[in-house]
Structure formats: structure tokens, C-alpha cells
Amino acid sequence: MEIGDVQLRQRVDRCNATSELDPGRPMNVLLTGGAGYIGSHLVRVLSAAGHTPVVYDSLVTGHAQAVAQARLIRGDVADTAALAAAMSDNAIDALVH
Predict the structure, then answer these.
(1) Does the structure show a pLDDT above 90 at 86?
(2) How far apart are CA 34 and CA 54, in angstroms?
């Protein structure tokens, strides 16, 4: 099912109205697996929008050089203590997995 631009904008506006975050405020965004193809592009998009991307990746298939402009934390998402520390240490506002 496709929705039109107006419907999508209304849904986003409803989410923003109920969010504790200020939609106009730059955010610290944690990208798990962010050193891969899609994550590296998202790092550039987030940076260009004024946000601070933080990449959390094991680098098993990702590439550090693909996200050189972002902070890179090498870790595995299965290590919940390290993941929680990365979120806390970087004051993460949003997570993309």
C-alpha cells in the first residue's frame, strides 16, 4: 500500500508532536552496522543534515575508511554492555539498526 506525500507528512508531524525530541534539534545518531554500504551513505546524509552520526560496527564486513568522517566504535551488537556504554558515552538520541 502506498501513501501520498500529504499522508506521510501528517504521520511524521504526529510523531514529531508526540516525541520528546525537538525535531529541529541536531541529534547524535548511533548506526549499528554503519560501516557498510547503506550505513556509509546514511552517515553522509545525517552529517549533511547537521546531525552527528556515531558508527558502531564489528568491521567483519564493514569498512572503517567508508565512515572516516564519523566516530567509529568497533563492537558487536551482541555485546550489550559495550553497546549500552557506546550509547551512554555519546549521548545518543536515536538509533538506526
Answers:
(1) yes
(2) 8
- Cell numbers for 4, please give them: 501520498
Q: What is the largest CA-CA distance in the chain?
A: 41
As a whole number, the mean pLDDT across the chain is 84
DSSP letter assigned to residue 77: T
Sequence-ordered list of residues with C-beta below 8 angstroms from that of 27, at least 6 positions apart, any chain: 21, 51, 52, 93, 94
The pLDDT of residue 5: 57
Strand pairing class (28-32; 71-74)? unpaired
Query: Does pTM top 0.85 for this prediction?
Result: no
Ramachandran category for residue 35: left, alpha or beta (phi over 0 → left; psi -120 to 50 → alpha): alpha
